[in-house]
Write a structure and sequence with these properties.
Radius of gyration: 12 Å
Structural class: mainly beta
Organism: Bacillus amyloliquefaciens (Bacillus velezensis)
InterPro entries: FN3_dom, FN3_sf, Ig-like_fold
Number of helices: 0
Strand content: over 45%
CATH architecture: Sandwich
Number of strands: 7
Protein name: Alpha-mannosidase
CATH class: Mainly Beta
Pfam families: fn3
Number of domains: 1
Length: about 70
Amino acid sequence: MTVNWDAVAGADSYNVYRGADKRLDKNVTKPEYSTDGLTPDTKLTINVTSVNESGESAMSEIATKTDAEGGSE
C-alpha cells in the first residue's frame, strides 16, 4: 500500500508516524510512504511531519487508508 501527500516547500525529509501509538515508522525523503505484507482489509493510520534544519513541523491530520487486497499497491 502506498500513501502520498503534497510536498512541503523547504522540507529535507518527512517522518511517518504509524498507528494509534504514533510510533516513528520511517524517515523518508519523498512525499510518499509504502508498506507491504498487510493482510486484506488492514487500516493503515499515519501522521506525517516535515523536517528541515529548523526542526520538525507539527503532525498532519490523521490519514487512514484501507488495503482491500493486502500486500502493496
